[in-house]
Amino acid sequence: METRAAPAALDPEQLRRRLDPATLPYSTTTETPPLTETIGQPRAISAIEFALAIQSVGFNLFVAGAPGSGRETIVVEYLRGVAGQRPTPSDWVYVYNFTDADHPNAIQLPAGQGALFAVAMQELVVMVRDEVARAFESEEYDRRRREVLNGIGARRNELFARLSAFALTQQFALDITPAGITNVPLIENRPLAPAEFAALPEEQRADIDRRAREVQEQLASTMIQVHALDREAADRVLALDREVTLFVVQPLLDHVRERYAAFPDVLAHIDNLQQDFIAHYQELRVRPGVGQAEAGAPALPWAQSPQAEYLTRYDVNVLVDNGATSGAPVIIERNPTYYNLIGRMDYRAVPGAMMTDFRQIKPGALHLANGGFLVLHVGDVLRQPFAWEALKRALLCQDIRVETLAAQQSPLPAASLRPEPIPLDIKVILLGSALDYRLLFAADEDFEELFKVKAEFAPDMLWTAEHVDQYVAFISRWVRDNDLKHLTRAAIAKVIEHGARLREHQQRLSTRMRAISDLLTEANHWAVRAGHDLIEASDIEQAIDMKEYRSNLVAERLDDLIADGTIDIDTDGERAGQVNGLSVLDIGDHAFGKPSRVSARVSLGRGQILSIDREIAMSGPIHSKGFLTLTGYLGGQYARDIPLAMSASITFEQSYEGVDGDSASSTELYALLSALSGVPIRQGIAVTGSVNQYGEVQAVGGVTRKIEGFFAVCQTRGLTGQQGVLIPATNVRNLMLSDEVVEAARAGLFHVWAVNTIDEGIELLTGVPAGERAPDGSFPEGSVHDLVQQRLRAFAEDARRFATPFPPDILPPQGGVIPA
User: Fold this and answer.
1) Which of 13, 264, 548, 562 falls 20 to 30 Å from 325 in CA-CA distance?
2) pTM of the full predicted structure?
3) Cβ distance 666 to 627 under 8 Å?
4) Would you please indicate which residues are annotated as catalytic (active-site) residues?
5) pLDDT (tens digit per residue) in 457-504
6) CA–CA separation, 298 vs 288, rounded Å?
């Protein structure tokens, strides 16, 4: 039987791409200018620039990228550059609504004018109170008031004189007291006592009652006239008081009107203020602390007096003050609760209740960022109840409405402030992952309308000379900005290689610059500890090793369990139907490779291939897809003219966590072919790789970690020179193995093989040729495929024999059993 050569192990130089320090045009990072631009993100930068330039509604920006990619830093830098060239937005203030106190009015003023307007209103009220009080305390006011009331008093006295004269004609006297006016009958010009009245004859008493009624009627008529005179007096005094108040406040208000002549909303507020001053001059004329003791009330501090509480309606609530802002604001809100976004109304305790007013309205991030930019993390927003809906509502309506959640959620209407909405002109930048974007795009119909621009940060960039220069420029900037030691040429090369290792790719460098900056900071620590003037390659290596040491406790414990036999993993010898598969465990801050034994058993059956892990729901959908591919391969390879009269079960031995991904599908197929053919598999070789229905091995993820995980197990048990890992040929470019693995491969103690097909892999694993199909459909005798096909034909023949119908004379009765 003709055999073909098994795939050769990869050359050690293929296991890791290295950067020769001698090729770098600088000896240390001191010779490299710091980075002044974004590294490796031309697509994202183009989208950011477009979103910031376009002013149309709905062109807000969603920045998609992995944490640590520098997305927030880059976005904020661009925002601040653009914001500095934009005009500073207006101030916003809330003032009392004199026609509807529950709807405070919003006034827009130029930047810095809001606080000045508030001070101007405070000074105005102080001057108005002083001038009004002084005017009402003046002798001139007393003179005019007497003039107004003099005529009224004379007419009032005349009415009472007439009333008294009429009473005397009726032999009655009038008794005027603070409690009222009573009429007393007279006899011989003296008051008639009640006893005397009772002793009078009935006719005389009746005459006195008649005359008393006439006096009462005249009294009632006179009192009507007196009350009319009192009203006239009050009206005259009120008119005088209002005239005096207007005379006092008019010049003061005109001064403010002249100052704010360009602001119609302020002028309207001043007009309302003037009418309120005139209507409530009584509160203005009371000096602080005056009048309380006279009324018998306990003395109160002026700030707590009713007059002071009333005067707060003239205050100005400066909601947004951009006086100290240069250009457009850039607000980063990391706690975007409902109230932190749209603002809130604070409450103060008063006896028996909680009260609020327009002075208690507080701004939210939307107010502070209005006219500029608001940066939010989408996860932060979605975790806060009602925050996402509030943000969408503000962007859709293009205004900010300060509302309480109680008012929105209550089934019954409740009295509450409803401040006038403030127009919204803002660019919102959401930071999240690409998955966040896809989920929101699919689940929220408003999302597409509100966030029309996506800037997606790439996780990597090509390993080119240009990008290496940018990497070094970033290193130079980081060490300068953070006062770290500079790097030697060899250390720079190690950092570049680590950037490729983070991406597990020989042609790409990671753009997770946070991981690179963390590495530099840790390496600086070890350089200081070692007394190095510069960060050397050994410091970079120590930083990488120590970071892994701090995180790999779980990996070491699993290696110990394999070493002492608790977890069964064979690393030498041969066994049929058993192969070592590889997977990657991610525990958050650390990912590592872990070998698992995959075993297969076969028997006569009906073509069913059973995954035990899938049956008990321990495998995910991708693993299930990869597993079901095996049926397609077996059918196309062996069942062209016979049925698959077999049953097989495959499982991951001692697996106590879920299994997902299709990287074990080739491993499962090797175990199945070995079980069917009876050819044993070398246990010193572990396998990873996906397979399609045609037996072609496809690329998978995490090959670097998987190889290193199996290497650690073999190293613990002792390297024999016969151990290694079988990977897809398309994964060779993903190899960035540790120096320890590379050196073991260089010494011939460990190997990495790359295959394109299942045939290549099974030959390497078993040492037996896979066998190529002849034109008649047969395989070379003794090949793996031949042995598998023979086994399947035997199964098919056995299945046919067992399926032979019973002779008629021994057919079981209907619904019965065969007799003994």
Assistant:
1) 264
2) 0.81
3) no
4) 663, 706
5) 999 999 999 999 999 999 999 999 999 999 999 999 999 999 999 999
6) 14
